[in-house]
Every structure is written in C-alpha cells, then in structure tokens.
Amino acid sequence: MATLTTGQAFPNFDLPSDDGHRVTNAQLEGKPFVAFFYPKDDTSGCTLEALDFTALSKDFAAAGVPVYGVSPDPIEKHCRFRDKHGLQVPLLADTEHALLQAAGVWVEKSMYGKTYMGVERTTVLVDAKGQVHRVWPKVKVDGHAQIVLDEARKLAGVAA
C-alpha cells in the first residue's frame, strides 16, 4: 500500500504498548494524535527522534495531542529502550507489521547492495475524526519533533 495521504482515514489498529496496555484507534477517537514510525529501537537516528519527542511530550500533552512511537520491535525491546533513555512517549510494538503495512511505511530498503524490508521513517498527524491531517515521509530527525508540535498545536487550536 502507498503511504497515507491527507484526508484518508488512519488505519485501524490494536497494538501493545510498553506500559503494559493496548492502544487502539477506537480509544483515540475524538482527539488528534501523532504516530511516528521508526525503524529500530536503540539506533542513533531512532534514539534521537524518540528523545526529541520526549523533550516535547509535555507540550504535546498541553495541546491535547498524544504521541506514539511505532516500530516492529517487540515490547521487551521497547521497555529496555525506554528505560535506557528515559523516554516519555508510549512505544507501540507492531511485530506483525499490520499497521506498518497499512500505513505504507513497511517498504523495501537497500544497504550495501542488499535489499530487505524495513520501516521508512515517517510521522503522521491524525485529526480528531481519525483522518490523516499531515504526513511527513522520509523524516530527517533534526528539528522534526518541533515541526510536528507546531502543526499539532494549529490542528488543536492551541497557541504556542
């Protein structure tokens, strides 16, 4: 499936979180949220991205826009990643790649001449109706979380 586009319904999901609960799109109905899809726990880019969203987590909460990190890593690995770096954003485990595929971010990648399947770093801002408000494909981490926060505040009608 192609990457999500603005105005499209965000895919249904039901995924375990590092806090021991499950998170579903039905639970999030009526409020906007952010899903940042990242390749792998405890790698340099993914760590920086998770730390940046953590640094702004209170600002996202004040805007009423929860943030969720989503990767194919299992919960146990998410918990180690969270604890090692003091992360404050829930991490969802999509070990079956259901949401990753539905969002179009589980793609063929290539490194050193070898191809493999993996996550294309992408962030999605979903509105209160469950529709995609904005997509940031092929994310460059530096400054990205602040850009997402600024857009989330606009969507939520909250001043900076």
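The record above closes out task 2.4. Task 2.5 opens with a second protein, given below.
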Amino acid sequence: MTPDPLPIVLAGPADATGVQACVDAAYTVWIPRIGRKPSPMLADYPALIGLEAVHIVRDGDDVTAVLVLRPADDHLLIENVAVRPAYQRRGLGSRLLAFADERARALGLPELRLYTHVLMVDNQRLYRARGFVETGRRTENGFARVYMTKEITGDRG
C-alpha cells in the first residue's frame, strides 16, 4: 500500500524560516547560471504568509516544498514553486501545480499565470508538460523572464 502523500497546507507565521530555507535550498543551484540570486530568494515570506499566499508541504518539522499563489481579478498567479533538492523528482512540483489548478477553479478564475527566468529551461519544460504555454518574454526588475499561462477549464491536469 502506498502511503498518503504529505498534505499541502497553508503556511503560518512560525513557518517563515522554514519557507525561506526551502526556497534558498531549491534556488541556490541557479545562482551561478543566472549570475545572481533568483527573485524567489529575495521575497518577503513573513508578509506573503500574512497574506495567506504561501502553501507548504512538511515532512516532520521540515518545509520540503513551497507554493506561492496570488489571486488577481482574472487569473491566479503562481509566484513561486520550490522543492528542496532532496525531495525533487518525486512529483511534488507536479502536485503543487495541480493544487494551483484546483485553487484557481475554487476561486472561479479562468487561468493560471507564472513566470520563470529564461535560463531555467528545466522549469519551462515542467510547465509546458503541465499545459502552460509561453505568452511572452521581457526583462523585469533586472530578471530576464519567460511568461506562461494555462487556461483553467473542467480538465484535471
């Protein structure tokens, strides 16, 4: 029998340090490639947690994955998906993206949007495999970004 997957839960104030540690662990590998800390490493996680924008997966006391969702009038922005390296390649990223799909449906929003650095091609592949399409490229806040969107319908994927 396969054990139940670890639940995705809303982060609380006590999780801020664990969220930052998870994000740092997930994104440190990208610093040499893009020449600076990726923007998720610079976010104000206590403030985002206060906005109830941060969802996490815990394994015991450790935050193993982070998902930051920001609703707008016509879409749900996936601001960050981060999985600790030791937990990568286990389907957590896909579970977080599926969770974002469900949140958008629950909020009655017709699409998901996200962006990633142009050099993070592995992430772009994952997003394309989950139904996202590229909608543009531009530099914002000094970061060269690829913007992607996914229509939310009655589909489950």
